[in-house]
Specification:
The complex is a heterodimer of chains A (about 230) and B (about 350). Chain A is α/β, with parallel strands linked by helices and about 230 residues long. Chain A has a single domain, classed as Rossmann fold (3-Layer(aba) Sandwich), CATH 3.40.50. Chain A has helices at about 20-30, 55-60, 85-90, 100-105, 135-150, 170-185, 195-200; strands at about 5-10, 35-40, 60-65, 95, 120-125, 155-160, 190-195, 210-215. Chain B has about 350 residues and is an alpha/beta fold. Chain B has 2 domains: about 5-235, Rossmann fold, CATH 3.40.50; about 240-350, Rossmann fold, CATH 3.40.50. In chain B, the strands form 3 sheets. Chain B has a 7-stranded mixed beta sheet with strand order 3-2-4-5-7-6-12, with helices on both faces. In chain B, strands 9-11-10-13-14 form a 5-stranded mixed beta sheet, with helices on both faces. In chain B, strands 1-8 form a two-stranded antiparallel sheet. In chain B, helix 3 (about 55-70) packs parallel to helix 5 (about 85-95) and helix 10 (about 255-270) packs across helix 12 (about 340-350). Classes of the chains: A alpha/beta (about 230), B alpha/beta (about 350).
């Protein structure tokens, strides 16, 4: 995490778990760094957006920049001008939570001139249990489409293979096999293995990428289990 | 087949194709847009056809046409969009055609909002269309149940030659969950010899119609429909009874709210308070007979809804004065919290004990 560049852009296929990873990453980063800002660039999803967790994140000292329209019920692709803040003020550590697929990544094009090789990382989150990214061909198709519209290169892959609370270590390892193939084909390193904290304990140590234990902040407690 | 992770709308669309749906006509509206998006991409791969219609009215009438020609066809929308389709639904029911209609509902009335709501209970179960007709309404509570019911809905629609509605709130459409596509029970379906699929010069043309200008004929037709709806009441009711043994209160809830209630039941049982859940899976026909299974320990019923109180009418009809019926609801896109429901349960118990 320490080696990641100042601007971290989180992209991927929709439903891959970008927002959950971005929120977890921001919370972890805020424990080490002072000025952490989470930019929610999602103009695709109407529900489960990181800006809905603004209160919780701000209590943890994280600045949240979302839509220019306040309130959770807006269905308008309005992006706040404040997005420029962490791009122009280099004292901020920034995480960009981008909308799903190339459709969502299109928003990045607007800020293209700010992304220089030395100041940004763009991570692509992959869940091998999502129907469209179950194989190398499908996953690479999404990666290339995202790179094309954003006009910047993905610098790291994140294995986020899961089935929510039903996730087993086998799911994660299945994802790891897929992502290794993608990594070899595209010459992009595996940066993180994002996995539920309780499953992380059961994983072998020798994995490509840093094991990144997460909690499900975006999923309300009442949705699972009895 | 191994489980995969899907978004509700996506899973519903995938299940429809697995259930034999080959035609989809719709018009976009949040929070169900992933359904037409999926259909637009996937139907052509299986030799089907997707059309984004110019309006909801056009879409439902395209469904009418495709169903009339014997195809398995679906449309989907959200609350105000379903309102626009009501005339067509009445025509389809009148002409006795099978189709599946998905309502991923949002807050109303009017344009309302885009957050989840169960304020379409009346719309789904009573119908906004005119005349003596009924639609079978499934209300799944999980994505697995959504997948299973959507696949089965096409069988049931064909079996009765009647529209089937899938009623899911926005939360069901937008949340993600592991799902598995399993084989569903197949029904013995008669050939669609009524379909307008070409005479090939060998038979008289079939006519799809809901117009009966002779009142005697129309009455006869309506009583025949009634007899069909009675068979649905007899055979198609579905519900889940959960934790009723030794319970003092039964909460009646469906869809997303039933999941919140299951959490409530688990929290309260740790405090020694026993609460049960009666979960209608079919909203019409309403599971009235489930109320006959309610044990003697029950002192009161509590309806929990994401509305200001709609299903409570059906609960009162089914309860038939046997228990007092209380209500807790949130509206406009708010989801009831477990804490608020727990407080309501305790308040009722304080009054009942």
């Amino acid at each position: 995490m320490k080696q990641d560049k100042r601007i971290r852009i989180i992209t991927g296929h929709y439903g891959s778990g970008k927002t959950e990873f971005a929120v977890n990453y921001a919370i972890k980063l805020a424990k080490e760094k002072k000025k952490v800002v989470l930019v929610d660039l999602d103009i695709v999803n109407p529900y489960f957006r990181s800006r809905e967790k603004k209160d919780m994140l701000e209590r943890l000292g994280i600045k949240v920049i979302g839509s220019s329209l306040e309130g959770g019920g807006t269905d308008v692709p309005a992006i706040s001008s404040s997005v420029f803040l962490p791009l122009q003020d280099k004292s901020y550590e920034a995480i960009f939570d981008v909308g799903g697929d190339d459709v969502g990544a299109r928003t990045l094009g607007r800020y293209h001139s700010y992304f220089q090789k030395e100041n940004y990382d763009m991570f692509c989150v992959v869940n091998a249990n999502r129907p469209e990214t179950q194989d190398v061909y499908g996953a690479i198709k999404h990666i290339q489409a995202i790179q094309n519209v954003s006009r910047i290169s993905i610098t790291g892959l994140i294995n986020n293979t899961h089935l929510l609370r039903e996730t087993t270590p086998q799911d994660v390892l299945k994802g790891q096999r897929l992502i290794r193939q993608i990594s070899e084909k595209l010459h992009i390193p595996i940066k993180y293995v994002s996995v539920l904290a309780e499953v992380a304990e059961k994983l072998p140590q020798q994995l490509d990428g840093e094991i990144f234990p997460i909690h499900l902040y975006m999923r309300e407690d009442w949705m699972d289990g009895n | 087949m191994a489980k995969i992770l899907m978004k509700g709308n996506e899973a519903i669309a995938a299940a429809a194709i697995k259930g034999g749906c080959r035609y989809f006509f719709g018009y976009p509206i949040t929070p169900q847009n992933e359904i037409p998006e999926y259909m637009a991409r996937e139907l052509q791969k299986v030799g089907g056809c997707f059309v984004q219609a110019e309006s909801e009215l056009a879409a439902i009438n395209m469904v009418y046409g495709a169903a009339g020609s014997g195809a398995r066809v679906m449309t989907s929308s959200s609350s105000p969009g379903i309102a626009l389709k009501q005339e067509g639904i009445s025509y389809i029911a009148g002409a006795e055609l099978p189709c599946v209609i998905v309502n991923i509902s949002r807050g109303g009335p009017g344009l309302g909002g885009i957050q989840p709501s169960q304020g379409d209970y009346f719309q789904n179960t009573r119908g906004g269309g005119h005349g003596d007709y009924r639609t079978l309404v499934y209300a799944p509570a999980t994505l697995q149940e959504s997948v299973d019911l959507v696949m089965e809905a096409f069988e049931v629609a064909d079996y009765y030659r009647n529209p089937v509605i899938i009623s899911g709130d926005g939360m069901i459409g937008q949340m993600m969950e592991p799902v598995e596509f399993k084989e569903i029970p197949k029904r013995e379906l008669p050939p669609k010899d009524w379909a307008t699929d070409g005479t090939k010069g060998k038979r008289k043309p079939n006519i799809i119609n809901s117009l009966y200008l002779d009142p005697e004929q129309l009455e006869k037709h309506n009583w025949r429909l009634k007899e069909k709806y009675d068979r649905m009441v007899q055979n198609e009711v579905r519900y889940e009874m959960y934790n009723l043994e030794q319970a003092e209160i039964v909460i009646v809830a469906y869809g997303t709210t039933s999941r919140v209630v299951k959490n409530v039941i688990s929290i309260l049982s740790k405090e020694g308070i026993r609460v049960g859940l009666l979960r209608p899976i079919t909203l019409w026909p309403y599971p009235e007979k489930a109320f006959d299974e309610i044990p003697e320990t029950i002192k009161a019923l509590l309806s929990v809804e994401m509305s200001t109180g709609q299903m409570i009418d059906d609960i009162k009809i089914a309860a038939n004065g046997r228990w007092p019926v209380y209500f807790y609801g949130r509206s406009g896109g708010m989801v009831p919290t477990p804490d608020a429901i727990i407080e309501k349960v305790k308040e009722i118990l304080r009054g009942q004990r």
